[in-house]
Amino acid sequence: MGHRVFRAYDPAAPVAGPADLRQWLPADHALYLLSELVAQLDLTPILAVDDQGDGGGNPPYHPVLLTKLLRYAYCAGVVSSRQIAAKTYDDVAFRVLTTDQHPDFRTISDFRERHLGALTGLFQQVVRLAARLGLAKLEHVAQDGTKVLANASKHRAMSDARMQQVEERLSREVQALLGAAQVADAVEDAAYGPDRTGDELRADLRGEVARRERRLVTIRAATAALEEEARAEADAIRAADAADRQRRADAGAPKKPGRPPEPPGVPAPTAQRNFTDPDSRIMKNADKAFVQAYNGQIAVDAGGYQIIVGCALTNQAADAPHLAAMVEQVRATTGRVPAEWRSDAGYFSASNIGVLTAASSTALIPPDRHATPRAMLPVAVAQVLSTAGCAGPLAAAGETETAVKAEMRARLQTEAGRRAYGLRKHTVEPVFGQVKERRGLRRFLLRGVAKVAGEWTLWCLTHNLRKLAQALRCQPDLRLHLGSR
After folding, report:
1. How big is the CA angle at 356 (ends 383 and 303), to the nearest 5 degrees?
2. Percent of the chain scored above 90 by pLDDT?
């Protein structure tokens, strides 16, 4: 057997790198495409924020560098500020992006939190850019929501009833400890004399009292917050009921039968509040498990590129209340409402159908969960049922919901309706898979609904940037339509 010859390999030998770091990456690398897309955005809100640097005389890092760094990191599924900082040393693409500069993790974290408010505007700019390039046609849109874990444990949540029990117990324990401290003082006075304090013995008691008092203050604050939420909810119910009565009176419709009970304005015994992230809520996820989470909502264009044209995040578990706001957001961002709006049964309500009808958008929202039509209704029956329309507040009490359900069932049991609604899961659900499985969003980093909403917007924004970069790679002619900002 002849002698085999290998290429020379000496880990200790210096390697001569190119003078231009960009030569380390292929010309069509996603990094360059992302940089080209960010150049199309108006970063004035970010550039206008004053940054004093690190306090040691060094000027701050350029906001465009940090903007691109965060966007590319989220596109790659790297979200920890410490991991992003390490990537600027370990990853060639990150090193090229930062031009061999290495902002520390605190700089990255502070920059992200400082500019959360600017993310909504950047998201809207990216959606408009996608529409200008023909990647978001706004003909058909699908909306859905997903539960994402909060940066808090559900075991740190407590119900109102349980808080009242613990508050009473802690009050008793504090009084008992104070009584024990008085007894200890008397014993120490007898043992050491009135001039000796005996601090070593009383320190433990004082520590226990302080710990329980801090816990008591926390629970009382949480109880007060739940009471305030209950009062606000009761006021909203009263206002909505008064507005409904006024609409019926103006339309000459009969009053609702009976007298609705007055909302109590006090927390339900099962109302819960989390001590780590009070804005988060216990919700049921897709696996039917109860988790401490937020509800992330998206509306995805069905044009084939899976562009998110609307995104929102709340601590409300139900999906239906999010449809009207999403429709308005898409209208404000793109200037129009899609011709067709698809959602699952969790979004069905007569008011939601009315919102879409008023916006001249065809609703495809089944009124029944897990309903699979066995046979298509006769065309004549579908036509008769479709005349029911979305009657709105002019219909008599109890008729509106029934009429809207009948029309929607008829629409979805036609061949065209079934085919159109069947595209919903192929439009929006893959986006959740890409964000949560491919890029690794399992738990939010920030706390508080305002900050978490900004973090969710950042995930949706970078999803769109990935889609635009892929389109530019596959269709180089699109670059001709980018132009200069």
Report:
1. 95
2. 48
